[in-house]
Specification:
With about 250 residues, the chain is α/β, with parallel strands linked by helices. Helix 1 runs parallel beside helix 11, helix 5 packs across helix 7 and helix 10 packs parallel to helix 11. It has one domain: Alpha-Beta Barrel (TIM Barrel), CATH 3.20.20. It contains 11 helices and 8 strands. The chain binds phosphoenolpyruvate. Phosphoenolpyruvate binds next to strand 8.
């Protein structure tokens, strides 16, 4: 069965309660664009408030600790996030890999913890500019994913992968639809190898990296692209829902 395009906003370290009005506006627009599945990952401090304010969109987190509870000052477990209303968690984002030195092995443990807490996982991967220029992007991304993806029995059912070339994040540069299609096809091959033909084929693969209303249609029409993970352009309802519109949605109201 064809799945709806999945458009996920990552607010990163942006947003105070003043931004709840944007979340409400995104939710209202999402109610009129039901052919697209829309979700938001606000910072921890807004998860519960956004969860309470919205009816249609999914609410998620941007990270979790691999443990269930305990002496980890400043950390948040997956079950605490679920309790606050989060239904999914973004893991392995390149900013966390760089800022917090996160390894593939740690990210896999976080993914297992999130699944065990009943959440869905959006697993990020992507190469830097040097790796792309050296022609090794595909090899790098597949190795990174192979080491980071969760292996629990039902993992594929609650998994989304996001391919985000680091050189495209927040830069205004985007990969070409051809390059995106090639990478997504390679990722699909890995998902089928790891999870089996049927389950591996159902996992959505998002593209992320400077997606905007103006380029979304082209990028999302590339092979095996099931949606977008959006940073900067998710901070206002206008630009974020402009992306949802651009992927072919006609308002129902
Ligand atoms: C991201 O960081 O997940 C991202 C895709 O950011 P941006 O859309 O701003 O490039």
């Amino acid at each position: 069965m064809a799945q709806r395009p999945y458009i996920v906003g990552n607010w990163k370290m942006n947003g105070t309660r003043a931004m709840l009005s944007e979340a409400r506006a995104i939710d209202r627009a999402a109610q009129r664009h039901m052919k697209v599945e829309v979700a938001l990952a606000p910072p921890y401090t807004l998860i519960h408030a956004v969860h309470r304010e919205v009816e249609q969109i999914g609410v998620g987190a941007q990270d979790c600790h691999p443990g269930a509870e305990g002496p980890h000052t400043g950390d948040i477990s997956a079950s605490m996030l679920a309790d606050a209303g989060a239904k999914f968690v973004i893991l392995g984002h390149s900013e966390r890999r760089a800022d917090h030195n996160e390894s593939d092995e740690l990210i896999e443990r976080k993914a297992d913890a999130a699944l065990e807490a009943g959440m869905r996982v959006i697993m990020c991967c992507g190469e830097d500019a040097r790796t792309r220029d050296s022609g090794k992007a595909e090899k790098f991304v597949l190795k990174q994913l192979r080491a980071s993806l969760p292996r629990l029995d039902d993992a594929a059912e609650r998994l989304t992968v996001a391919y985000e070339p680091i050189w495209a994040i927040g830069t205004g540069n985007t990969a070409t639809p051809e390059d995106v299609g090639q990478m997504h096809t390679a990722i699909r091959g890995l998902l089928v190898e790891l999870y089996g033909q049927e389950e591996g084929a159902e996992v959505r693969i998002l593209y992320g990296g400077s997606v905007k209303p103006e380029n979304a249609r082209d990028l999302l029409s590339a092979d095996e692209v099931g949606g977008a993970l959006v940073g900067g352009a998710s901070l206002t309802a206008d630009s974020f829902m402009g992306i949802a519109l651009a992927v072919g949605e006609t308002p129902e109201a």
